[in-house]
Specification:
The protein contains five helices and seven strands. By secondary structure, the protein is of the alpha+beta class. Strand 5 and strand 6 form a beta hairpin. It is elongated, with a radius of gyration of 34 Å. The chain starts with a helix and ends in a 14-residue tail after the last helix.
């Protein structure tokens, strides 16, 4: 007999809570000794159901990226979507690599990437439990960028270009452009 020597008739009555009682079956003869285990089983099942139902509602996981810059006030694009000026907080859903662009007048534009790596509670298997726990879990990722001042001096630009050209193997020197008197 399954379930520790008890027949399925006991379990059928246990799971049919609120149903009308069935008339006794004369062919089925069950003799068990009552020891209170049915109440313990019922209480355990009720506690499990309450825990699952109660735990499904209030659980929450919040994910935020905070982007700051030096100097502050830079306009930020995250994956080609403008999100605001630094310091800025943005909610996100997916972990991984994000493209980040910052622009501030008077500073060199910055194009880089940021990595949002998941915490332990977001690993496969644990993420379901984290969503069911009746507390709010908050993952805040902080990225800080330093912007360089803009260098608009044309003579310095030409000097950097000539220096880079000399580092390229096999590059020819630039042709002289005649200057007008």
């Amino acid at each position: 007999m399954p379930f520790g020597g008890r027949s399925c008739a006991h379990l059928e009555v246990f799971f049919a809570v609120g149903a009308a009682p069935r008339p006794p079956n004369p062919q089925l003869r069950v003799t068990t000794q009552y020891n209170g285990s049915m109440e313990r089983l019922r209480a355990s099942a009720l506690a499990l159901v309450l825990l699952m139902v109660g735990g499904l509602g209030p659980g929450c996981v919040r994910r935020t990226i905070m982007i700051t810059s030096e100097p502050p006030g830079a306009l930020v694009w995250l994956n080609d979507r403008e999100i605001g000026r630094t310091p800025v907080d943005v909610d996100f859903e997916f972990y991984g690599r994000y493209d980040v662009r910052l622009h501030l007048p008077g500073s060199e534009p910055l194009m880089t990437s940021g990595n949002a790596s998941p915490p332990v509670w977001e690993m496969i298997g644990l993420d379901l439990i984290a969503e069911m726990v009746p507390i709010t879990l908050h993952r805040r990722i902080k990225w800080h960028y330093v912007l360089r001042p803009r260098d608009d001096d044309p003579e310095a630009l030409i000097g950097r270009a000539q220096r880079l050209r000399s580092e390229i193997p096999g590059a020819r020197p630039p042709a002289k452009v005649p200057q007008e008197p």
